[in-house]
Amino acid sequence: MKNLFLSITFLFVLNSCSNQPAVEQTAESKESNEIAVLDTANAPVFKFEKEVYDFGKITDGDVVTYDFKFKNVGNSPLIINSATASCGCTVPEYPKEPVAPRAEGVIRVVFNSAGKPGMQNKIVSITANTIPSISELNILGMVEAK
């Protein structure tokens, strides 16, 4: 009885240890991780002069414009796919052409304060071929009633 139990246990262990696809899958995972590391090293990178702009106090109806200047400090062209704001009162404009490594660019943000009294904090989300793929800029300040 004891020998039968040992034989069954031995067969079970032997069978589970000879699982070849798991070894191949691990090798593939290791290879894809190495590729991801290489892509990260070559990825474009945003470096903004400033990520938050405080326009201070303005009067309801004023329009504020700010240029967020950036440099691509990565090793491949930076491509901005989209730039969206948290509110329709804020409109971002961004370069449609790739920004070469070590080149500079501008994301212009226009905020229309009409009908927006009080403290404001508008977020602009930029989707690009960077890691991470989404970057955020903020424009904030106080809108006082007329």
Q: What does the model show?
A:
The chain has 146 residues and is α+β, with helices and mostly antiparallel strands. It folds into 2 domains: 2-42; 46-144, Immunoglobulins (Immunoglobulin-like), CATH 2.60.40. 27% of the residues lie in helices and 42% in strands. The chain has 2 helices and 8 strands, in the order H-H-E-E-E-E-E-E-E-E. The strands form 2 sheets. It has a 4-stranded antiparallel sheet, with no helix packed on it. A 4-stranded mixed sheet has the order 2-8-7-4, with no helix packed on it.
Q: What class would the helix/strand composition place it in? A: alpha+beta
The largest β sheet comes out as: 4 strands, antiparallel
Tell me the helix content. Answer: 25-40%
Distance between the termini: 94 Å
Q: Just name the CATH architecture of the largest domain.
A: Sandwich
CATH topology of the largest domain: Immunoglobulin-like
Count of runs of 4 or more consecutive helical residues? 2
Number of β-strand runs: 8
Q: Going by CATH, what is the homologous superfamily of the largest domain?
A: Immunoglobulins
**What is the class of the largest domain in the CATH system?**
Mainly Beta
The spatial strand order of the largest sheet comes to: 1-3-6-5
Shape: elongated
Which blocks of ≥5 consecutive residues have pLDDT under 50? 10-14, 16-25, 29-38
Return Rg in Å: 27 Å
- Proportion of strand residues: 35-45%
Q: What is the element string, with H for helices and E for strands?
A: HHEEEEEEEE
Number of domain units = 2
